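User: tokens in, sequence out, please.
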């Protein structure tokens, strides 16, 4: 009677739990949906969203927003004819600028702005400044496009070229690239993941389930990201939102691969899908939780960064990983249980069946070679990674604004035209904000500063006065950089900003952030690994391995960015961001391998056998997961900004190196060579008869976790 009642209760639970989980997710999405739709409204790519929080240039941008008229939009209209401008060309230019001045309120000058001719007579530039758009990005874009519409009325007629550049036009063109990231990035990521899942699962149905769950997790992450923005003011930029989507699909698919692989095995051993899923979650759940927790902690270390874009990416990346984790450990199991065994068609794992015997696997062969000559394999791999890391010496210097686009927009070509026509003349202002009561003294000091061509007072308000400075040297040249640093040294109590000053602050702050965040990530990840693996040597081995991967991946970037892709510079934040992602994600896979190795050791296997068995049984899952994650980050290489291309390339290459070289060969060979010492000072580092010390409990043998190839 009691047994029958328990059986009926178990059946009801098996039927009810998956439906209850599905219902909870429907309710959760209903709550998150309105917020997810609003994420685009709080996504901004203004200067202050990327600048260092405490830098001079950030303070200038913030104060300018409070001055009469709000934030300034600065444009430069460039008229150019190779053979020299004619009188008709100058009349055309003057007429167009007069039309623009009649339609829009221009500030900083009285009447119609005057043109500045180049010495060779081929170019005429008209600087325009307007406060009409303020901080509204849509109004700024409309202003820029209207000016371009008027200017292009005579564009390319009889050889006359007209281009609209300046900081406002550059911001508009950059905004177009960021706006284009959302759709193409998502669609391309989904297509890449779908293709890989079809190849991995070899099923016309199964691939849809983890892909759909990843899409739901991405939608949830958008709602949570919006909530963070509203509650804590977390910066949401096009870059951080795009990386969040990449992490949801990449990390989420990795967790799905591990779970589905284990679930398939349990279905052969356990009759009911519900019970098989419970066993699968118990088996691989701890490793998935530990790996996702490590990634989340690594990303949250970015909160210590002073750069707004980096600090905002930490919470958003963490949201992506955690939403993927929750979805893959709750929604995915519920859907798989409801669909039953038929979801694996045509390779349905029948109860009591044995998996098809295959020829010796690739990872078994790799393990055998690493096991025969572990020191040779380890030394060869270390030399190879070291040689690749030397490529970092070939990395180009910091990327300039005009070189930050893969395809040059109009604002960049205008800057390049100005650089050629005015080689020894500043073509974009340096913005100085001085206290109102000291504005005259500041203006006199600026004009006396070496490297300054001219200076002119602008708006005054809220206790501050704006001074526009033109340097003698070209933008972002060594001479202009020296002028900006001289102004900052001379003008105490004032702030020096503008485009070139922003680039200086970005480089300096990235250098500072690297010194702070890198040690923080290493210590945080190391402590988690020590707690998880109950060892000191194994965690140090994993951390050293991922750091070596990071150096080698950056080195490969140095061999590709300039010589192959033709990039003129490297994003200042590349080193820090790639380090955080590669360390966090690389350790993620290391946990899968070392966790299985520890389980084998606890079950009584000899150290070498435990290492080789761990590689053989987890190699397929790790390889599949590595391919998916590398492919999702590789999607960034198809985007229009150099910083995203470089970041996606380095992370994708690093994940592949980690998956097929470091994790398979080097970590395995090091574990074989170290034998029990890899678990020092834990109990597993001693021989079985020596493990019990005074007051120490011997860990009982455990059944090893079964993680097979998908």
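Assistant: Sequence out:
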């Amino acid at each position: 009677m009691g047994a029958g009642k328990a059986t009926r209760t178990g059946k009801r639970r098996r039927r009810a739990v998956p439906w209850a989980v599905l219902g909870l997710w429907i309710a959760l999405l209903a709550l998150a949906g309105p917020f997810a739709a609003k994420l685009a409204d709080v996504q901004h790519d203004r200067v202050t969203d990327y600048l260092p929080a405490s830098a001079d240039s950030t303070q200038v941008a913030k104060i300018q927003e409070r001055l009469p008229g709000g934030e300034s939009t600065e444009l430069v209209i460039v008229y150019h004819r190779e053979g020299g401008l004619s009188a008709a060309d100058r009349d055309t230019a003057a007429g167009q600028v007069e039309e623009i001045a009649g339609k829009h309120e221009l500030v900083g000058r009285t009447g119609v702005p005057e043109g500045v001719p180049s010495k060779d007579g081929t170019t005429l530039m008209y600087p325009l400044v307007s406060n009409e758009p303020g901080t509204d990005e849509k109004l700024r874009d409309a202003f820029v496009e209207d000016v371009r519409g008027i200017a292009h009325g005579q564009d390319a007629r009889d050889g006359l070229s007209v281009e609209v550049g300046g900081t406002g036009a550059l911001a508009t063109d950059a905004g177009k690239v960021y706006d284009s990231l959302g759709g193409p990035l998502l669609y391309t990521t989904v297509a890449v993941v779908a293709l890989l899942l079809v190849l991995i699962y070899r099923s016309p149905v199964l691939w849809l389930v983890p892909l759909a769950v990843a899409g739901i997790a991405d939608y949830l992450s958008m709602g949570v990201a919006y909530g963070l923005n509203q509650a804590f003011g977390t910066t949401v930029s096009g870059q951080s939102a795009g990386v969040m989507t990449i992490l949801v699909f990449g990390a989420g698919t990795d967790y799905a691969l591990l779970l589905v692989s284990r679930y398939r095995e349990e279905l052969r051993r356990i009759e009911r899908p519900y019970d098989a899923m419970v066993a699968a979650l118990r088996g691989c759940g701890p490793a998935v939780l530990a790996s996702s927790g490590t990634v989340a902690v690594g990303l949250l270390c970015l909160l210590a960064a002073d750069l707004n874009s980096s600090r905002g990416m930490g919470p958003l990346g963490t949201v992506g990983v955690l939403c993927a984790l929750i979805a893959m450990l709750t929604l995915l199991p519920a859907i798989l249980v409801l669909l039953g065994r038929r979801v694996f068609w045509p390779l349905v794992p029948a109860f009591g069946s044995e998996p098809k015997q295959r020829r010796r696997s690739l990872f078994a062969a790799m393990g055998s070679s690493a096991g025969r000559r572990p020191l040779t394999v380890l030394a060869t791999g270390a030399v190879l990674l070291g040689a690749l890391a030397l490529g970092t010496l070939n990395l180009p210097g910091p990327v300039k604004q005009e070189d930050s686009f893969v395809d040059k927009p109009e604002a960049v070509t205008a800057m390049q035209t100005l650089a050629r026509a005015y080689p020894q003349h500043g073509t974009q202002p340096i913005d100085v904000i001085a206290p109102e009561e000291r504005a005259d003294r500041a203006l006199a000091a600026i004009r006396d500063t070496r490297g300054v061509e001219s200076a002119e007072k602008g708006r005054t308000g809220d206790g501050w006065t704006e001074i526009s400075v033109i340097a003698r040297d070209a933008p972002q040249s060594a001479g202009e950089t020296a002028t900006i640093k001289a102004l900052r040294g001379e003008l105490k109590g004032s702030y020096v900003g503008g485009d070139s000053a922003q680039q200086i602050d970005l480089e300096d702050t990235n250098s500072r952030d690297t010194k702070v965040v890198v040690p923080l990530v290493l210590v945080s990840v190391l402590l988690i690994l020590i707690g998880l693996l109950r060892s000191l040597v194994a965690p140090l081995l994993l951390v050293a391995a991922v750091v070596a991967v990071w150096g080698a991946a950056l080195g490969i970037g140095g061999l590709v960015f300039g010589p192959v892709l033709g990039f003129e510079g490297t994003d200042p934040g590349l080193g820090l961001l790639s380090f955080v992602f590669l360390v966090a994600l690389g350790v993620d896979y290391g946990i899968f391998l070392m966790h299985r190795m520890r389980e084998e050791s606890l079950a009584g296997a000899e150290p070498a056998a435990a290492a080789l068995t761990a590689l053989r049984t987890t190699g397929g899952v790790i390889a599949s997961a590595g391919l998916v994650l590398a492919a999702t980050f590789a999607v960034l290489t198809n985007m229009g900004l150099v910083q995203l291309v470089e970041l996606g390339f380095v992370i994708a290459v690093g994940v592949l190196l980690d998956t097929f070289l470091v994790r398979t060969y080097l970590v395995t060979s090091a574990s074989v060579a170290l034998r029990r010492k890899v678990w020092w000072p834990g109990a597993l580092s001693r021989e079985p008869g020596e493990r019990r010390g005074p007051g120490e409990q011997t860990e009982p043998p455990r059944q090893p976790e079964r993680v097979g190839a998908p």
